[in-house]
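sorry for the late reply, my laptop died twice this morning and i had to redo everyting from scratch. anyway the thing you sent over, i finally got around to it. pasting the sequence first so we're on the same page, its 398 residues, then the predicted structure underneath. double check i copied it right bc i was rushing
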Amino acid sequence: MAKQGDERRKVRPATAMVHGGTARSGFGETSEAMFLTQGFVYETSEAAEARFKGEEPGFVYSRYSNPTTRMFEERMMALEGAEDARGTASGMAAVAAALQCQVKAGDHIVASRAMFGSCRYVIETVLGRAGVASTIIDGRNLDEWRAAIRPETKVCFFETPANPTLEIVDIAAVAEIAHAAGARVVVDNVFATPMFQKPLQLGADVVVYSATKHIDGQGRCLGGIVLSSKDWIDEFFHDYHRHTGPSLSPFNAWTLLKGLETLPLRVAQQTRTAARIADLLAESGKVAKVLYPGRADHPDAAIAKKQMTGGSTLIALELKGGKEAAFRFSNALQIILISNNLGDAKSLITHPATTTHKNLSPEARAELGIGDGLLRLSLGLEDADDLGEDIEAALAAV
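ok and here's the structure:
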């Protein structure tokens, strides 16, 4: 990697995650500095005026931008292949802001039904109160996208793979349909991670992440990020972000920078473990259903193979015996922890029907395939043999 100030050449993701976006102070520090200041000073009033007008480069206020936060944004831009980005306080702040900034009363959003419960709340309730209509569809069905889009449709939103059933939406195909109608595509890429899927390269206009998940990956802090073209950020997101304040803390941005240094290593190892555990579960004969994008028996395996370069770190499994069996299995685990987070160095399991998707009606959960026996398993960095033994013992307890 070229040193700071030299002409930089294009490098591979693992190198970019160690060096990308680094801006050193006059002290020449090795690790990125934490700039915890709220504001900045100017040599003269004329300099302050020029900075506010955008005539001179520099920072104005940490709610708008900050040196540490900008390093995180630029490192993510290098990984994602995006022209610009803005960090946010959480993943949901990223989703809500990316949608709200580009719609108004009378507009319409089409969204895939397989999504995190809070995302659905933002679309149907928060934006609904503001006069933005929405249509929820089966995102895997391209005919439903075509039928749902109206002249006033401004945004198509989906997660892929989706939370928690790992449904996969064809990004390129939906982007083609949306763009033909003048709508933009926002993709939540959390489950795939930027290591295995590049929505912008597949035709999406905006990609969002909960950086709380794999990007931090060690249970330390909240964060989110919105990435897109410079034109989209300038037209829709920049002023919204400045004035509404869903800003990323500089301390959290520094923590996330440290997480990015090991992201390729962590996600690769977690994915290898997830593939092994998915096979173990499928071959056990004790599980009603196993869903993993890296397996050929995933319902959307062909699309996964087309747009993902790895199966990633999550598995959905369904136990016979409903909630009672799911609880007995989870409670019997000794290494895998019960938690509603994911993408962590520690393996985590949750019961979506009573946690992340509890606010959906039973009918809505049934439509999504979230049965009482469904569990979402996020694989961590423990020894895969230990995890396999833990799961086998828990299955025996069921």
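The radius of gyration is 22 Å.
thats about all i looked at so far, will dig more tmrw
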